[in-house]
Amino acid sequence: MNIVKWQTPTLANWPSLGRLSDLRDEIDRFFDSPFPGLTRTSDLLAGWTPALDVYEDKDSYTVKAELPGMKKEDIEVSLHEGLLSISGERKSEAKKEDAEVYRSERFVGRFQRTVTLPAPVTADKVKAAYKDGILTITLPKSEEAKPKQINVSVN
């Protein structure tokens, strides 16, 4: 009887994982092929989309968007017919002339996110605050959108 030391399996021993990679390549090709002029590197699809969360309580909606490295002057917030839009531009940093880029993963450029609000809000009471790279927008619900307590009378 031979005793063999257990080894962590490598990806080469898992042929199905290679098929997942092939599937991803096929999906990428599918989305690129109908629009050959619009590849992922085109200006139309380039850019970034900041992550955001939307919360609701009984009185308001709160939207939080991650906008690290931006100045508040470069952020625009608008509300029109139940649509909240957050847009702006993250500018690239000045590059050092004597340095070569080894890796570049941070997105720069224009962005826009639009959220459909589920109920009317009081537009003149909307507040936006920006701190530590997080934009927080508080949208108070209009009176007709707030839950109502109905008293039941006994006859």
In short:
The protein is mainly beta and 155 residues long.
Tell me about this structure.
- By secondary structure, the chain is mainly beta.
- It folds into 2 domains: 11-46; 52-92 and 109-145, Sandwich (Immunoglobulin-like), CATH 2.60.40.
- It is 12% helix and 30% strand.
- The chain is built from 1 helix and 7 strands.
- The protein has one helix at residues 15-32; strands at residues 52-56, 60-66, 75-80, 83-90, 109-116, 127-131, 134-140.
- Strands 1-2-7-6 form a 4-stranded antiparallel beta sheet, with no helix packed on it. A 3-stranded antiparallel beta sheet has the order 3-4-5, with no helix packed on it.
- Strand 1 (52-56) and strand 2 (60-66) form a beta hairpin.
- The longest helix has 18 residues, at 15-32.
- It is extended, with a radius of gyration of 25 Å.
- The protein starts with 14 loop residues before the first helix and ends in a 15-residue tail after the last strand.
- Residues 36-45 have low confidence and may be disordered.
Architecture blueprint of SSEs:
Blueprint: H1 15-32, E1 52-56, E2 60-66, E3 75-80, E4 83-90, E5 109-116, E6 127-131, E7 134-140
Antiparallel strand pairs: 1-2, 2-7, 3-4, 4-5, 6-7
Descriptive labels:
155 residues, mainly beta, Immunoglobulin-like, 2 domains, 4-stranded antiparallel beta sheet, 3-stranded antiparallel beta sheet, 1 helix, 7 strands, 30% strand, extended
| CATH top level class name of the largest domain | Mainly Beta
CATH architecture label name of the largest domain: Sandwich
Number of helices: 1
Judged by helices, strands and strand pairing, the structural class is mainly beta
